[in-house]
Design a protein that fits this description.
2 domains; two-stranded antiparallel sheet; 5 helices; repressor; DNA-bd_dom_put_sf
Amino acid sequence: MKIHVLAQKTGLNPPTIRYYEKEGLLDRRHVERRDNNYREYTEEAVEHLLLIKRVQAAGFTIREIKVILKEEDENKLELSKAIEFLRKKMKEMDHRKRELEQSQSLLARMLDNKLALLEKKGT
């Protein structure tokens, strides 16, 4: 499939897909160059990019994803290392969640103060 079809199926834009390819996140299983130098993407590329998208949304960096995929491809990803890595990511997510909750609480207090001022002016 051409890149515009892959973009539609994954919700990613073509420059992002090309960036992932440049970074080594897509390999020969996912993309081939035709004689006319056009890229031809496989169905496997769709699932692979959706996985990358989900993992990135969970807080993984491109660098971390590259390491995990490389180790997994080489059958070097040890179960204990994977568990430790996932636990670490979950703790980071909890930390970010607490920070967002604190920010939301601050904004709510600021909004309450502004609404109170507005009510005072209206009376």
